[in-house]
Amino acid sequence: RGRLLGHQGPVVAVRFTAPGEYCLTAGKDRTVRLWNPATCLCIKAYEGHGNEVREARASPDNSRICSAGGDRQVFLWDVARARTVRRFRGHDAAVNAVCFGAGGAVVVSGGYDQAVKAWDCRSQSIDAIQSVTCCRDSVTSVAVEGAGDDAVARCARALYPEYQRRLRARGQPLSREVVSLQRVEPGGAAGGAEERGGAPQHM
Fold first, then answer.
1. CA 45 to CA 167: how far, in whole Å?
2. 13, 29, 109, 194: which is deepest, by most CB within 10 A?
3. pTM for this one?
4. Number of Cα atoms under 13 Å in the Cβ half of residue 129
5. What span, in angstroms and rounded, lies between the C-alpha atoms of 60 and 71?
6. CA distances (Å), 200 to each of 115, 123, 133, in order?
7. What is the pLDDT of residues 47-92, one digit of tens each?
8. What pLDDT, in 10s, does the model give residues 106-152?
9. Are 91 and 97 in contact, with CB atoms under 8 Å apart?
């Protein structure tokens, strides 16, 4: 047992990489750090965010990291070089959650703007390939299930602690271009969220 010392302030998130050999930390000092928990040594520090970092995740092959925080941006990092590959922009408020999907080809994020956004890691664009505002409060966590077909977001609305929305790409996984999304309530009822004029409209 030991302590991972290095952050210059509170640590907001801790995540293990696959298969658990290393771990990532995100802090209010605006950095993401990669650690070897067996030796308690910091391997690399990733600096670039303009505000606190609230979440960091490693890709399935551990070659990249996605991070997000108070600066409203989602960063895609090259692990070995400790440099940003892409800085995705589009959230209107702090970003609380981020994760990889589709085998690392897509990043999904959610934030205080009540939006869930999907970003293509293979594209040179910094714009989201899909954006859906379906939660009644800030998005506190996101996850991609299975092969990347389903992205699940959880909302912070106090009256509904189990409130969540499932965003499912109709007929094609999020790893491809998404043309429409379907909302599925916790009870199983579905509602549409299709693109019209470039922006999702709830039906």
1. 33
2. 109
3. 0.78
4. 22
5. 25
6. 11, 21, 8
7. 999 999 999 999 999 999 999 999 999 999 999 999 999 999 999 9
8. 999 999 999 999 999 999 999 999 998 867 789 999 988 765 557 78
9. no
